[in-house]
């Protein structure tokens, strides 16, 4: 009987891709099979996130539960960003954990598996040229990593401490991976990196000069690729060449994530974001001008230390001007190892909650207006997922989630859909062609 593993993945798309890489290594090199049933697993993995997911004490209570439920002799491994920043402290606090594997050490999964109490959390480790086996959770959409780590030092963010300095993956490896995925049916290629449009700044070995715009062009030349998405771009690196390629290239989906964080230039400086309110507005409004149907999503942190009423009004002003289709908004919360956690001027929680509520309420009003505009419209939808109740879900080019009645035969196809019921973040429709 083959051995089984259970894996829980928290956090962002990069973690999803890291889990896919671990799954490929375990199944192809170690003879494991996946299971959804924790009690029958021989190996239990939790791929953690330190950005927004569970606070550390919740992680320990969760692995404590895993330990109670696991079958005798089963191993537990803690992986990902929290593994990187806590390292051996995890085994000290939870001695039943068998190994700790940091976010930049994914290729060592087969090594830690056989090394009792292994802790592999080196954030300088370079696995940018490691050839992982093939595994994808969706046959219709392929995540492809283009870089590892991040060179920015945003004062609220722990990622540079968990994923290390930025290293780009060689362009030929990216093209080869994207081509292989597209030829096996994944018509949508999703390029991943902490800061994608900084691509090409540093490679692990000699590499011809290439930037993200050129990489996008090369991916779009793969015949079988129909759609290209990417996350996350940084507003600072949104130069004209990049925006023009984004607008001009028909294979690049017209949905841009522009993480604003704050609309106040003063707070952006304290966050070390490297751009101003004016720069952000200029880029976002240029995008709207070039592509009337573009959708722009963003991340906003309210009540960063020192944020005054006036600073918050600047954020509200950007929201009014850009009219984001989606906002991921959070109250500032201090993260370990970050400079901002020690800033003295922390904003009281009651004020933070008030600001967040006001921002979300105003954004919901805007979404209601957008929703009315979508009713009855026709969109091209690429179907990629079966949903309960005989529904199939897909996304429009500008990343709006649409569901229709249907079955497997719609999967992997791009069809015209008329919207019959528009919601704030998703809609229902019927296929018309
Ligand atoms: S750009 Fe800033 S927020 Fe994004 S991962 Fe890097 S340090 Fe964190």
Describe this protein's structure.
- The protein is of the alpha/beta class and 433 residues long.
- The protein folds into 4 domains: 3-120, Rossmann fold (3-Layer(aba) Sandwich); 136-253, Transcription Regulator spoIIAA; 256-373, Transcription Regulator spoIIAA (2-Layer Sandwich), CATH 3.30.750.200; 375-431, OB fold (Dihydrolipoamide Acetyltransferase, E2P).
- 33% of the residues lie in helices and 23% in strands.
- It is built from 13 helices and 19 strands.
- The strands form 5 sheets. The chain has a 6-stranded parallel beta sheet, sandwiched between helices. A 5-stranded mixed beta barrel has the order 15-16-17-19-18.
- Helix 11 runs parallel beside helix 12.
- The longest helix has 26 residues, at 349-374.
- The N and C termini lie far apart (47 Å).
- The mean pLDDT is 96.
- Iron/sulfur cluster binds at residues 150, 152, 154, 157, 159-160, 194-195, 234.
Instruction: Return the average pLDDT rounded to an integer.
Output: 96
Instruction: Specify the overall morphology.
Output: globular
Detail the poorly predicted runs: none
Decide which structural class fits the backbone. alpha/beta
Main β-sheet description: 6 strands, parallel
| Rounded Rg | 22 Å
State the name of the first-level CATH class of the largest domain.
Alpha Beta
Task: Give the name of the CATH architecture of the largest domain.
Answer: 3-Layer(aba) Sandwich
Number of strands: 19
CATH level 3 topology of the largest domain: Rossmann fold
| Strand line-up in the sheet with most strands | 2-1-3-4-5-6
